[in-house]
Design brief:
Number of strands: 0
Number of helices: 2
Shape: rod-shaped
Oligomer: single chain
Number of domains: 1
Helix content: over 70%
Largest sheet: none
Distance between the termini: 87 Å
Order of helices and strands: HH
Length: 92
C-alpha cells in the first residue's frame, strides 16, 4: 500500500450474501472499513447501495414464498371446510 492510498477489499475478503444476517455483517464490514480508512466514503456508499438492493430482492422473494405458502394453506382449509359441511349436511 502506497502512502495515502487506501487498501480496499478483494473478493476473497467478502462473503457471499445468502441470508439477511450476511447483509448485516457486510454492512458492518463497510462501517469498519470506513472507520479504519480501508475504504472511501464513496466505496462505502456503493457497497451499501448494493447490499440494500440485495435485501430488497431477497425480501421480495421471501414475501412471494410466504404468500404462496399462505395461499396453499388457505386452499387446504377451504377444502377441509367444504368436506366438513358435507358431513354435517349428511347427518341431518
Amino acid at each position: 500500500m502506497k502512502d495515502g492510498q487506501l487498501q480496499g477489499y478483494v473478493a476473497a475478503d467478502l462473503a457471499p450474501l445468502v441470508t439477511l444476517e450476511d447483509a448485516k455483517l457486510a454492512l458492518d464490514a463497510i462501517r469498519v472499513g470506513v472507520l479504519t480508512r480501508r475504504i472511501t466514503g464513496g466505496e462505502a456508499t456503493a457497497g451499501s447501495k448494493a447490499i440494500a438492493e440485495w435485501v430488497r430482492t431477497e425480501t421480495a422473494a421471501i414475501t412471494a414464498r410466504l404468500v404462496g405458502e399462505l395461499r396453499a394453506e388457505l386452499e387446504r382449509k377451504a377444502k377441509e371446510i367444504k368436506a366438513l359441511r358435507k358431513q354435517l349436511v349428511g347427518r341431518k
